Amino acid sequence: MNGFVTINTIKRFIIKISVLAMLLLTVGYTAKAQQVNVTATLDSAMIFIGGQIDLKLEVSQPEGLILNFPIFTDTITKNIEIVEKGEVDTAKIDNNRLVLTQLYRITSFDSGLHYIPPIQLEIIQQDARNIAASNELSLMVINPFEEVDPEKGVMDIKKPIDAPFKISEVLGFIYLYGGIALALGLLIWLFLYLRKNRTDSILSFIKPKPIEPAHVIALRELDKIKASKLWEHNRVKEFYTQVTDTIRNYIEHRYNQPAMEQTSQEIFDSLRTLDIGPKSMEQLRQVLQLADLVKFAKFNPLPDENGISLINAYFFVNQTKKEEVKSLEEEKENMLAKEADIDKI
User: Fold this and answer.
1) Which one in 50, 77, 120, 171 has a CA-CA gap of 20 to 30 Å to 113?
2) Can you tell me the distance from the alpha carbon of 233 to that of 241, in angstroms, rounded to the nearest whole number?
C-alpha cells in the first residue's frame, strides 16, 4: 500500500512539473509576441480614382525572432489593388531590436471609403506560433469626373475648340512691331544718306592722288633692296625673293599679266608675244632663273652674280617702262620750274 502511494505521488509530481514548464514556456512566447510592434501607414488618407500612394508596413521586433510577412498577390482588399511590392528592408536599432519595413504601391478604381483591416504577421519560435497585427486603416477614393459609365468603354479625347480668329487681337502687335520696324528703317536710311553726302562733300574738296606708274613703284622698291644689302648679310634667299616679287609685280601692272601666280617659264612664254627686246628678255631670264636656283635648289651664287641680278632688274624696268604722257598743266609746271632754276643761276 505504501509503495503504491509512493508511485502515484511521483506521477502527480511529474505531471505538475510538466504543466508548470509548459505554462512558463507559453508565458515566455507570449512575452516575446507582445514585444513585436506592427504599424501600417498611408501616404495620404485620400486619393483620386486611379491614383497611387504607398502603404508602409513597419515591424519592430527583438533580434533573433522569425516573422512571416503576409503574402499578397495583387490586392490588399477587393477594392484596393497592389501596383508594386517592395523588398523587406531591415535596420538594427538599440537594445538588440530590429526594424523591418516593406512598401506597397496601391491604387483603387472604386470610389468611396474603403476599410483596410489589420495586417497580420506570423511569429515563429521553435514549436510555438503567434500572430502580431497592425492597426486598421481607411482610404477615401474620390471620383473627380461627373459621370463614369463602364458600358461606354474608352472614349476619344475631345478635339480642341475652334475659336474664331479676331483681327482686333493682333492689331496691337502689328502697330507695335510695325512702328519699331519703320523707325529702324528710317534711321538706317538717314545714316546712309548723311554718310554718302558727307563723303561726297569731303571728296569734292580733295584732289585725287594720281596713281603711280608701275615702273616708279618698281624702281623705288629696287632702291630699298639695294640699300638693305641683304646678300652681304647671308640673306641671299630673301634678297632674290624681294627682287623677283618686285619684277613680277611690275610685269602684272605694266603688261596685265598674272605674273605673281606664274612660274618663270610661264612668264617668258606670256611675254614672248609682246614688244620686248631680246636684250631685256635675256636680262629678265638671268634674274628669274638664278632666283629659282637660289630659292628651290639652295644654290649659293657668287657676290658678283648678286650685283648683276640687281643691275639687270634695274635695266629691265627702265628699258620696258611705259613713257608717261604729261598733261598741259604738268608741262607748264615743269617749264616754270626750269625757268626758276635758270633765274637762280
Assistant:
1) 120
2) 15
